[in-house]
TrEMBL record:
Record flagged with keyword Ribonucleoprotein: no
Coiled-coil stretches: none
Transmembrane intervals: 35-54, 70-89, 120-142, 154-173, 180-200, 237-259
Protein name as annotated: ABC transporter permease
Assigned keywords, A-Z: Membrane, Transmembrane, Transmembrane helix
Alphabetized Pfam families for the sequence: ABC2_membrane_4
Length: 266
């Protein structure tokens, strides 16, 4: 009896994990805070509409500038911080973490279900405004079909950024049981300060996301390049994708191991 019940129980783990993912994903989408975040993500779309209606700026120039200066460096990390940080911490602050860990699921699967829910939510909230922005800008330029590869490249870069940032912010939350503060500190130190220093910039997610997008990897003052390097570091898109995948995998593995062993006090 034992030998037949154990496999059945193991096979039932995956549907339970998928149900946890589905419940958490639905809760994320229905949250009022998600609507606020979506409104923030749509701000560049409204600006683009105003420029198209009253300005003379080329639509695709507007799209590329918005991606390089607004979405990739700020709005993508913001969405990841919003969904990744609270993935577990919300359960602690809501005093439901004990009930969550009492589910007949391995803790590793509980964490992964919550993380994937956060990743998918952040992907949706960032991707939809980018597609809208592209549609407006490309239509105004009359280059809708011809610029589809540009959309694919930017969507790919933003998606990689969302996944990597979410994994890192969720890891920090799992380690320190703090959702926002540590994520903000990390972003300021690593993604703003260290990302502006030649060579050290390689440890920042921002550098590799820009590389995937086909932008110059570095985003810093020119005098730093002249002081330390003859020219900025530049790599092919696959290098940025590889490093981002390593960051995501390591952050997920570390956070999963910590969550599996950590004793939560509420």
């Amino acid at each position: 009896m034992t030998s037949t019940s154990l496999p059945a129980r193991n096979l039932g783990v995956i549907p339970q994990a998928l149900r946890l993912f589905s419940l958490d994903f639905g809760r994320q989408l229905r949250a009022r805070k998600t609507l606020v975040l979506l409104a923030v993500q749509l701000l560049p779309v409204l600006v683009a509409l105003a420029y198209v209606a009253f300005g003379q700026l080329d639509g695709m120039t507007m799209f590329r500038n918005s991606m390089e200066s607004v979405y990739l460096p700020f709005l993508v990390p913001l969405a990841a911080l919003y969904f990744g940080g609270p993935a577990i911490v919300d359960e602690i602050e809501g005093r439901t973490i004990t009930y969550l860990t009492l589910r007949p699921l391995p803790r590793a699967l509980i964490y992964l279900a919550k993380l994937k829910s956060a990743m998918l939510s952040a992907l949706l909230v960032t991707s939809l405004p980018i597609i809208l922005l592209f549609g407006i800008c490309a239509f105004s330029s009359g280059e809708l079909l011809g610029e589809l590869p540009t959309l694919g490249k930017m969507l790919g870069a933003s998606a990689v950024g969302v996944l990597t940032y979410t994994a890192v912010f969720a890891m920090l939350a799992a380690i320190f049981s703090s959702s926002l503060l540590l994520g903000i500190v990390y972003y300021v130190i690593v993604e703003m300060v260290i990302a502006a220093i030649p060579v050290l910039e390689l440890v920042s997610i921002k550098f590799h996301v820009r590389t995937i997008a086909g932008l110059q990897g570095a985003d810093r003052a020119g005098w730093l390049d002249r002081l330390i390097l003859d020219e900025p570091l530049n790599f092919e898109w696959w290098f940025g994708l590889l490093v981002a995948a390593i960051f995501t995998t390591l952050a997920t593995a570390v956070a999963t191991a910590i969550f599996r062993e950590k004793q939560f006090h509420v």
